[in-house]
Amino acid sequence: MAKKTVKLDIGTVFQKQDNGTYYFRYQVNGRRKQISLKTKNQKEAIKRAEEKIPVLKASSMEVIAAHVSHAKSLSAKQKRLKLTSVWEVYSKHPERVRPKTQKIWNVYQACLNEFLNWLSENYHDVEYMDELCDIDQFGNKLDVSIIHEYADHLRTLEISVDTHNKKISRPATIFRTLDKYLPAPSPWDNKKLKRSASEETHTEHRKPIPAENEKKIFELLKPESSYHPKNKNELQVLVHFLKYTGQRQKDCVYMSWNKIDMNRRRLWVKQEKTGKEVSIPIAQPLYEILLTAKKWKENQYVLPRCVERYSVTAADGTNTGVNTINLQLLKTIKKSGLEPSVKISGRKKKLTIYGVHSFRHGFASHCAETGVPRPVCASILGADASIIDKYYVHIGEEAQLKAIQSLTKEKTRTNQERINEALKFIENIQTKSKEILAIKQILENI
Fold first, then answer.
1. Given CB 3.0 to 4.6 Å as the disulfide criterion, which of 156, 236, 330, 417 pairs with 221?
2. Would you say the pTM of this structure is higher than 0.70?
3. Which listed CATH number (3.40.50.1860, 1.10.443.10, 1.10.1240.10, 3.20.20.80) goes with 211-399?
4. Left if phi > 0, otherwise alpha if psi is -120 to 50, otherwise beta: which for 340?
5. pLDDT tens for each residue of 125-144
Protein backbone atom coordinates (compact mmCIF):
# COMPACT_ATOMS: atom_id res chain seq x y z
CA MET A 1 0.00 0.00 0.00
CA ALA A 2 1.34 3.45 -0.92
CA LYS A 3 2.23 5.78 1.92
CA LYS A 4 2.80 9.04 0.01
CA THR A 5 -0.16 11.02 -1.33
CA VAL A 6 -0.21 14.72 -2.25
CA LYS A 7 -3.36 16.66 -3.14
CA LEU A 8 -2.95 19.46 -5.66
CA ASP A 9 -5.24 22.25 -6.81
CA ILE A 10 -6.59 19.78 -9.34
CA GLY A 11 -6.10 16.06 -8.81
CA THR A 12 -3.89 13.91 -6.62
CA VAL A 13 -0.33 12.63 -6.90
CA PHE A 14 0.16 9.20 -5.33
CA GLN A 15 2.05 5.92 -5.39
CA LYS A 16 0.28 2.59 -5.87
CA GLN A 17 2.97 0.86 -3.83
CA ASP A 18 5.94 1.81 -1.67
CA ASN A 19 8.94 3.01 -3.69
CA GLY A 20 6.86 2.69 -6.83
CA THR A 21 6.14 5.05 -9.69
CA TYR A 22 4.00 8.13 -8.96
CA TYR A 23 0.65 8.58 -10.67
CA PHE A 24 -1.58 11.60 -11.26
CA ARG A 25 -5.36 11.17 -10.87
CA TYR A 26 -7.70 13.98 -12.00
CA GLN A 27 -11.10 14.68 -13.54
CA VAL A 28 -11.79 16.50 -16.79
CA ASN A 29 -15.01 16.89 -18.80
CA GLY A 30 -16.82 14.37 -16.69
CA ARG A 31 -14.14 11.68 -16.90
CA ARG A 32 -11.86 10.39 -14.18
CA LYS A 33 -8.34 9.97 -15.54
CA GLN A 34 -5.13 8.44 -14.18
CA ILE A 35 -1.69 8.73 -15.80
CA SER A 36 1.83 7.65 -14.87
CA LEU A 37 4.28 10.44 -14.07
CA LYS A 38 7.15 8.04 -14.84
CA THR A 39 9.21 8.91 -11.79
CA LYS A 40 9.71 7.57 -8.28
CA ASN A 41 10.80 10.98 -6.98
CA GLN A 42 8.00 12.85 -5.22
CA LYS A 43 9.26 16.37 -5.98
CA GLU A 44 9.73 15.54 -9.64
CA ALA A 45 6.28 13.92 -9.75
CA ILE A 46 4.62 17.01 -8.24
CA LYS A 47 6.44 19.24 -10.70
CA ARG A 48 5.28 17.15 -13.68
CA ALA A 49 1.71 17.08 -12.41
CA GLU A 50 1.62 20.85 -11.82
CA GLU A 51 2.77 21.39 -15.39
CA LYS A 52 -0.41 19.68 -16.58
CA ILE A 53 -2.79 21.67 -14.35
CA PRO A 54 -2.98 24.82 -16.56
CA VAL A 55 -4.02 22.62 -19.48
CA LEU A 56 -6.68 20.91 -17.36
CA LYS A 57 -8.04 24.25 -16.17
CA ALA A 58 -8.32 25.58 -19.70
CA SER A 59 -11.88 24.72 -20.72
CA SER A 60 -13.50 25.94 -23.92
CA MET A 61 -15.98 28.83 -23.74
CA GLU A 62 -18.73 26.47 -24.92
CA VAL A 63 -18.21 24.14 -21.96
CA ILE A 64 -18.12 27.05 -19.52
CA ALA A 65 -21.32 28.50 -20.93
CA ALA A 66 -23.07 25.17 -20.80
CA HIS A 67 -22.24 24.68 -17.14
CA VAL A 68 -22.32 28.23 -15.83
CA SER A 69 -25.67 27.87 -14.05
CA HIS A 70 -24.61 24.66 -12.38
CA ALA A 71 -21.26 26.16 -11.41
CA LYS A 72 -23.04 29.08 -9.70
CA SER A 73 -24.99 26.69 -7.51
CA LEU A 74 -21.69 25.27 -6.29
CA SER A 75 -20.06 28.65 -5.64
CA ALA A 76 -20.62 28.32 -1.91
CA LYS A 77 -17.84 26.40 -0.18
CA GLN A 78 -18.84 22.76 0.17
CA LYS A 79 -18.59 21.25 3.63
CA ARG A 80 -16.29 18.23 3.59
CA LEU A 81 -16.31 15.22 5.84
CA LYS A 82 -13.43 12.80 6.12
CA LEU A 83 -14.38 9.19 5.58
CA THR A 84 -12.64 8.25 8.82
CA SER A 85 -15.13 10.50 10.66
CA VAL A 86 -18.30 9.29 8.94
CA TRP A 87 -19.37 6.84 11.64
CA GLU A 88 -18.65 9.26 14.48
CA VAL A 89 -20.80 11.95 12.85
CA TYR A 90 -23.54 9.52 11.80
CA SER A 91 -23.84 7.89 15.24
CA LYS A 92 -24.77 11.29 16.71
CA HIS A 93 -27.04 12.40 13.87
CA PRO A 94 -30.69 12.96 14.93
CA GLU A 95 -31.94 11.15 11.79
CA ARG A 96 -29.77 8.04 12.22
CA VAL A 97 -31.46 4.64 12.20
CA ARG A 98 -32.51 3.40 15.62
CA PRO A 99 -32.62 -0.42 15.47
CA LYS A 100 -34.21 -2.36 18.30
CA THR A 101 -31.05 -4.33 19.04
CA GLN A 102 -27.38 -3.43 19.48
CA LYS A 103 -26.53 -6.26 17.09
CA ILE A 104 -28.16 -4.51 14.12
CA TRP A 105 -26.49 -1.22 15.06
CA ASN A 106 -23.12 -3.00 15.06
CA VAL A 107 -23.90 -4.49 11.65
CA TYR A 108 -24.36 -0.98 10.19
CA GLN A 109 -20.91 -0.01 11.47
CA ALA A 110 -19.38 -3.29 10.25
CA CYS A 111 -20.77 -2.78 6.72
CA LEU A 112 -19.32 0.73 6.60
CA ASN A 113 -15.94 -0.45 7.91
CA GLU A 114 -15.84 -3.27 5.37
CA PHE A 115 -16.24 -0.72 2.59
CA LEU A 116 -13.65 1.65 4.07
CA ASN A 117 -11.11 -1.17 4.37
CA TRP A 118 -11.65 -2.07 0.71
CA LEU A 119 -11.35 1.60 -0.22
CA SER A 120 -8.04 2.04 1.62
CA GLU A 121 -6.59 -0.89 -0.33
CA ASN A 122 -7.81 0.25 -3.74
CA TYR A 123 -8.19 4.05 -3.52
CA HIS A 124 -5.83 5.05 -0.73
CA ASP A 125 -5.76 8.69 -1.92
CA VAL A 126 -9.54 9.14 -1.40
CA GLU A 127 -10.10 10.89 1.94
CA TYR A 128 -13.46 12.67 1.79
CA MET A 129 -17.08 11.61 1.24
CA ASP A 130 -17.50 13.91 -1.76
CA GLU A 131 -14.67 12.14 -3.58
CA LEU A 132 -16.85 9.06 -3.91
CA CYS A 133 -19.42 10.84 -6.07
CA ASP A 134 -19.72 9.57 -9.63
CA ILE A 135 -20.83 12.99 -10.89
CA ASP A 136 -18.38 15.85 -11.49
CA GLN A 137 -18.75 19.50 -10.50
CA PHE A 138 -20.74 20.21 -13.68
CA GLY A 139 -23.24 17.41 -13.14
CA ASN A 140 -21.66 15.06 -15.69
CA LYS A 141 -21.65 11.33 -15.05
CA LEU A 142 -18.10 10.01 -14.63
CA ASP A 143 -16.99 6.94 -16.55
CA VAL A 144 -15.53 5.40 -13.38
CA SER A 145 -17.60 4.73 -10.24
CA ILE A 146 -15.85 3.68 -7.04
CA ILE A 147 -19.08 2.40 -5.51
CA HIS A 148 -19.86 0.33 -8.61
CA GLU A 149 -16.38 -1.19 -8.35
CA TYR A 150 -17.09 -2.06 -4.72
CA ALA A 151 -20.40 -3.71 -5.69
CA ASP A 152 -18.55 -5.75 -8.33
CA HIS A 153 -16.05 -6.76 -5.63
CA LEU A 154 -18.92 -7.99 -3.40
CA ARG A 155 -20.20 -10.09 -6.31
CA THR A 156 -16.96 -12.07 -6.23
CA LEU A 157 -17.52 -13.09 -2.59
CA GLU A 158 -19.30 -16.26 -1.52
CA ILE A 159 -22.33 -14.50 -0.04
CA SER A 160 -26.06 -14.68 -0.66
CA VAL A 161 -28.01 -12.12 -2.67
CA ASP A 162 -29.64 -10.88 0.53
CA THR A 163 -26.28 -10.40 2.26
CA HIS A 164 -24.88 -8.57 -0.77
CA ASN A 165 -27.82 -6.18 -0.85
CA LYS A 166 -27.54 -5.46 2.88
CA LYS A 167 -23.85 -4.61 2.47
CA ILE A 168 -24.99 -2.00 -0.06
CA SER A 169 -28.17 -0.71 1.59
CA ARG A 170 -26.66 -0.03 5.02
CA PRO A 171 -23.82 2.26 3.85
CA ALA A 172 -26.40 3.82 1.50
CA THR A 173 -28.55 4.72 4.52
CA ILE A 174 -25.57 6.32 6.25
CA PHE A 175 -24.58 8.40 3.21
CA ARG A 176 -28.18 9.43 2.57
CA THR A 177 -28.42 10.75 6.13
CA LEU A 178 -25.16 12.71 5.70
CA ASP A 179 -26.05 14.03 2.24
CA LYS A 180 -25.13 17.61 3.16
CA TYR A 181 -21.51 16.54 2.71
CA LEU A 182 -22.19 15.41 -0.86
CA PRO A 183 -22.23 17.94 -3.73
CA ALA A 184 -24.23 15.48 -5.86
CA PRO A 185 -26.72 12.63 -5.29
CA SER A 186 -25.30 9.78 -3.24
CA PRO A 187 -23.50 7.22 -5.43
CA TRP A 188 -24.97 4.46 -3.25
CA ASP A 189 -28.55 5.15 -4.37
CA ASN A 190 -28.32 3.22 -7.62
CA LYS A 191 -30.48 0.13 -8.14
CA LYS A 192 -27.81 -1.45 -10.33
CA LEU A 193 -25.56 -1.87 -7.30
CA LYS A 194 -27.84 -4.54 -5.86
CA ARG A 195 -28.29 -8.10 -7.01
CA SER A 196 -31.59 -9.56 -8.18
CA ALA A 197 -33.32 -12.34 -6.26
CA SER A 198 -33.29 -14.37 -9.50
CA GLU A 199 -29.50 -14.66 -9.15
CA GLU A 200 -29.99 -17.17 -6.33
CA THR A 201 -29.71 -20.42 -8.27
CA HIS A 202 -30.26 -22.83 -5.40
CA THR A 203 -33.67 -24.47 -4.93
CA GLU A 204 -33.28 -25.16 -1.22
CA HIS A 205 -35.40 -23.19 1.24
CA ARG A 206 -36.69 -23.32 4.80
CA LYS A 207 -38.98 -26.31 5.25
CA PRO A 208 -41.50 -27.46 7.85
CA ILE A 209 -40.15 -30.22 10.08
CA PRO A 210 -41.51 -33.59 8.86
CA ALA A 211 -44.17 -35.12 11.13
CA GLU A 212 -42.05 -38.09 12.20
CA ASN A 213 -39.10 -35.85 13.17
CA GLU A 214 -41.38 -33.40 14.95
CA LYS A 215 -42.79 -36.29 16.98
CA LYS A 216 -39.23 -37.36 17.83
CA ILE A 217 -38.38 -33.81 19.02
CA PHE A 218 -41.34 -33.81 21.39
CA GLU A 219 -40.35 -37.26 22.68
CA LEU A 220 -36.75 -36.16 23.26
CA LEU A 221 -37.95 -33.30 25.46
CA LYS A 222 -40.24 -35.41 27.63
CA PRO A 223 -39.03 -35.68 31.26
CA GLU A 224 -38.51 -39.43 31.03
CA SER A 225 -36.24 -39.37 27.95
CA SER A 226 -32.47 -39.87 28.26
CA TYR A 227 -31.79 -36.57 26.45
CA HIS A 228 -30.94 -33.85 28.98
CA PRO A 229 -30.34 -30.36 27.51
CA LYS A 230 -30.11 -27.38 29.85
CA ASN A 231 -33.53 -26.25 31.18
CA LYS A 232 -35.15 -29.20 29.45
CA ASN A 233 -38.53 -28.56 31.08
CA GLU A 234 -38.68 -25.05 29.63
CA LEU A 235 -37.51 -26.21 26.19
CA GLN A 236 -40.40 -28.64 26.17
CA VAL A 237 -42.85 -25.79 26.73
CA LEU A 238 -41.04 -23.64 24.16
CA VAL A 239 -41.47 -26.15 21.32
CA HIS A 240 -45.18 -26.40 22.23
CA PHE A 241 -45.44 -22.62 21.88
CA LEU A 242 -43.60 -22.75 18.53
CA LYS A 243 -45.78 -25.53 17.12
CA TYR A 244 -49.21 -24.52 18.37
CA THR A 245 -48.99 -20.72 17.99
CA GLY A 246 -46.77 -20.30 14.90
CA GLN A 247 -45.00 -17.36 16.57
CA ARG A 248 -41.32 -16.39 16.28
CA GLN A 249 -38.75 -17.68 18.75
CA LYS A 250 -38.29 -14.42 20.66
CA ASP A 251 -42.03 -13.88 21.09
CA CYS A 252 -42.38 -17.43 22.44
CA VAL A 253 -39.41 -17.13 24.81
CA TYR A 254 -40.75 -13.89 26.31
CA MET A 255 -44.34 -15.17 26.69
CA SER A 256 -45.74 -13.84 29.97
CA TRP A 257 -48.48 -15.23 32.20
CA ASN A 258 -50.44 -11.99 32.10
CA LYS A 259 -50.94 -12.59 28.36
CA ILE A 260 -52.43 -16.05 28.95
CA ASP A 261 -56.04 -16.64 29.98
CA MET A 262 -56.26 -20.31 31.01
CA ASN A 263 -60.03 -20.07 31.68
CA ARG A 264 -60.85 -18.73 28.23
CA ARG A 265 -58.01 -20.82 26.76
CA ARG A 266 -56.60 -17.92 24.79
CA LEU A 267 -53.28 -16.06 24.70
CA TRP A 268 -52.10 -12.74 23.27
CA VAL A 269 -48.77 -11.99 21.60
CA LYS A 270 -47.32 -8.54 20.88
CA GLN A 271 -45.00 -9.43 18.01
CA GLU A 272 -41.61 -7.82 18.59
CA LYS A 273 -40.74 -7.65 14.88
CA THR A 274 -43.98 -6.18 13.54
CA GLY A 275 -45.52 -4.56 16.63
CA LYS A 276 -48.77 -6.36 15.77
CA GLU A 277 -50.77 -7.96 18.59
CA VAL A 278 -52.43 -11.28 17.76
CA SER A 279 -54.89 -13.37 19.76
CA ILE A 280 -54.61 -17.16 19.56
CA PRO A 281 -56.75 -19.97 21.04
CA ILE A 282 -54.74 -22.38 23.21
CA ALA A 283 -54.57 -25.88 21.70
CA GLN A 284 -55.18 -28.79 24.08
CA PRO A 285 -51.52 -30.06 24.08
CA LEU A 286 -50.31 -26.52 24.81
CA TYR A 287 -52.93 -26.11 27.55
CA GLU A 288 -51.77 -29.30 29.25
CA ILE A 289 -48.07 -28.34 29.16
CA LEU A 290 -48.91 -24.87 30.53
CA LEU A 291 -50.58 -26.50 33.53
CA THR A 292 -47.24 -28.21 34.18
CA ALA A 293 -45.37 -24.92 33.70
CA LYS A 294 -47.48 -23.24 36.37
CA LYS A 295 -45.74 -25.46 38.95
CA TRP A 296 -42.43 -23.60 38.50
CA LYS A 297 -43.94 -20.11 38.15
CA GLU A 298 -41.63 -17.58 39.84
CA ASN A 299 -42.19 -14.33 37.93
CA GLN A 300 -44.20 -12.95 35.01
CA TYR A 301 -42.48 -15.15 32.42
CA VAL A 302 -43.59 -18.67 31.51
CA LEU A 303 -39.95 -19.56 30.72
CA PRO A 304 -37.93 -17.61 33.32
CA ARG A 305 -34.63 -19.49 32.79
CA CYS A 306 -34.82 -19.15 29.02
CA VAL A 307 -35.54 -15.42 29.35
CA GLU A 308 -32.54 -15.04 31.65
CA ARG A 309 -30.25 -16.76 29.15
CA TYR A 310 -31.84 -15.08 26.12
CA SER A 311 -31.18 -11.63 27.59
CA VAL A 312 -27.40 -12.06 27.98
CA THR A 313 -25.42 -9.32 26.21
CA ALA A 314 -21.72 -8.91 25.44
CA ALA A 315 -19.60 -5.95 26.54
CA ASP A 316 -20.35 -4.10 23.28
CA GLY A 317 -24.09 -4.45 23.87
CA THR A 318 -24.58 -7.26 21.33
CA ASN A 319 -27.22 -9.77 22.38
CA THR A 320 -25.38 -13.11 22.58
CA GLY A 321 -28.02 -15.03 24.52
CA VAL A 322 -30.19 -15.52 21.44
CA ASN A 323 -27.80 -18.14 20.06
CA THR A 324 -27.73 -20.18 23.28
CA ILE A 325 -31.42 -21.08 22.93
CA ASN A 326 -31.29 -21.30 19.14
CA LEU A 327 -28.34 -23.72 19.17
CA GLN A 328 -30.07 -25.92 21.74
CA LEU A 329 -33.11 -26.24 19.50
CA LEU A 330 -30.95 -26.87 16.43
CA LYS A 331 -29.12 -29.61 18.33
CA THR A 332 -32.45 -31.18 19.26
CA ILE A 333 -33.65 -30.99 15.65
CA LYS A 334 -30.43 -32.68 14.53
CA LYS A 335 -30.85 -35.38 17.19
CA SER A 336 -34.29 -36.13 15.72
CA GLY A 337 -32.55 -37.30 12.55
CA LEU A 338 -32.50 -34.12 10.43
CA GLU A 339 -29.50 -32.21 9.09
CA PRO A 340 -30.41 -28.57 9.82
CA SER A 341 -28.03 -26.91 7.33
CA VAL A 342 -26.77 -27.70 3.83
CA LYS A 343 -23.88 -26.41 1.74
CA ILE A 344 -24.96 -24.18 -1.13
CA SER A 345 -22.85 -23.52 -4.21
CA GLY A 346 -21.56 -19.95 -4.37
CA ARG A 347 -22.09 -19.32 -0.66
CA LYS A 348 -19.53 -19.72 2.10
CA LYS A 349 -22.14 -19.96 4.85
CA LYS A 350 -24.41 -22.98 4.99
CA LEU A 351 -28.14 -22.50 4.43
CA THR A 352 -30.43 -23.51 7.30
CA ILE A 353 -33.19 -25.80 6.01
CA TYR A 354 -34.61 -27.02 9.32
CA GLY A 355 -34.45 -24.53 12.17
CA VAL A 356 -36.58 -22.83 14.79
CA HIS A 357 -38.45 -20.93 12.07
CA SER A 358 -39.46 -24.29 10.55
CA PHE A 359 -42.18 -24.53 13.22
CA ARG A 360 -43.68 -21.32 11.82
CA HIS A 361 -43.56 -22.78 8.30
CA GLY A 362 -45.15 -25.96 9.64
CA PHE A 363 -48.00 -23.97 11.18
CA ALA A 364 -48.77 -22.27 7.84
CA SER A 365 -48.46 -25.57 5.97
CA HIS A 366 -50.88 -27.33 8.34
CA CYS A 367 -53.40 -24.46 8.06
CA ALA A 368 -53.32 -24.69 4.26
CA GLU A 369 -53.60 -28.49 4.19
CA THR A 370 -56.58 -28.57 6.56
CA GLY A 371 -58.51 -25.87 4.74
CA VAL A 372 -58.07 -23.03 7.22
CA PRO A 373 -58.91 -19.81 5.31
CA ARG A 374 -55.89 -17.72 4.41
CA PRO A 375 -57.07 -14.61 6.34
CA VAL A 376 -57.42 -16.72 9.50
CA CYS A 377 -53.86 -18.02 9.13
CA ALA A 378 -52.65 -14.46 8.52
CA SER A 379 -54.42 -13.21 11.64
CA ILE A 380 -52.39 -15.67 13.73
CA LEU A 381 -49.01 -15.42 12.03
CA GLY A 382 -49.27 -11.65 11.81
CA ALA A 383 -49.65 -11.40 8.02
CA ASP A 384 -46.24 -12.87 7.18
CA ALA A 385 -47.04 -12.94 3.47
CA SER A 386 -43.82 -14.65 2.36
CA ILE A 387 -44.63 -17.72 4.44
CA ILE A 388 -48.40 -17.71 3.93
CA ASP A 389 -48.22 -17.37 0.15
CA LYS A 390 -45.79 -20.27 -0.04
CA TYR A 391 -48.23 -22.76 1.46
CA TYR A 392 -51.51 -21.35 0.20
CA VAL A 393 -50.45 -21.28 -3.45
CA HIS A 394 -51.74 -24.84 -4.00
CA ILE A 395 -55.26 -23.62 -3.19
CA GLY A 396 -55.00 -21.30 -6.17
CA GLU A 397 -53.63 -24.14 -8.30
CA GLU A 398 -56.62 -26.35 -7.45
CA ALA A 399 -59.02 -23.52 -8.31
CA GLN A 400 -57.22 -23.02 -11.63
CA LEU A 401 -57.50 -26.73 -12.45
CA LYS A 402 -61.24 -26.71 -11.76
CA ALA A 403 -61.63 -23.64 -13.99
CA ILE A 404 -59.81 -25.34 -16.89
CA GLN A 405 -61.80 -28.54 -16.43
CA SER A 406 -65.07 -26.59 -16.52
CA LEU A 407 -64.02 -24.90 -19.76
CA THR A 408 -63.08 -28.17 -21.42
CA LYS A 409 -66.05 -29.99 -19.83
CA GLU A 410 -63.70 -32.53 -18.32
CA LYS A 411 -65.26 -34.48 -15.50
CA THR A 412 -63.48 -36.60 -12.93
CA ARG A 413 -65.19 -39.99 -12.64
CA THR A 414 -66.05 -41.25 -9.20
CA ASN A 415 -65.00 -44.71 -7.99
CA GLN A 416 -68.58 -45.94 -8.30
CA GLU A 417 -68.73 -44.80 -11.93
CA ARG A 418 -65.56 -46.75 -12.66
CA ILE A 419 -67.04 -49.89 -10.98
CA ASN A 420 -70.26 -49.60 -12.98
CA GLU A 421 -68.25 -49.28 -16.19
CA ALA A 422 -66.26 -52.44 -15.33
CA LEU A 423 -69.47 -54.39 -14.52
CA LYS A 424 -71.02 -53.32 -17.83
CA PHE A 425 -67.95 -54.54 -19.67
CA ILE A 426 -68.09 -57.93 -17.88
CA GLU A 427 -71.80 -58.25 -18.65
CA ASN A 428 -71.07 -58.04 -22.40
CA ILE A 429 -68.59 -60.92 -22.28
CA GLN A 430 -70.23 -63.97 -23.90
CA THR A 431 -68.31 -66.72 -22.08
CA LYS A 432 -67.36 -65.85 -18.51
CA SER A 433 -64.62 -67.80 -16.72
CA LYS A 434 -64.67 -68.54 -12.99
CA GLU A 435 -62.10 -65.79 -12.46
CA ILE A 436 -64.23 -63.18 -14.28
CA LEU A 437 -67.32 -64.19 -12.30
CA ALA A 438 -65.31 -63.88 -9.08
CA ILE A 439 -64.18 -60.38 -10.09
CA LYS A 440 -67.79 -59.46 -10.90
CA GLN A 441 -68.89 -60.58 -7.43
CA ILE A 442 -66.14 -58.56 -5.75
CA LEU A 443 -67.08 -55.44 -7.68
CA GLU A 444 -70.78 -55.84 -6.86
CA ASN A 445 -70.01 -56.13 -3.15
CA ILE A 446 -67.84 -52.99 -2.94
1. 236
2. no
3. 1.10.443.10
4. alpha
5. 899 998 898 876 666 777 77
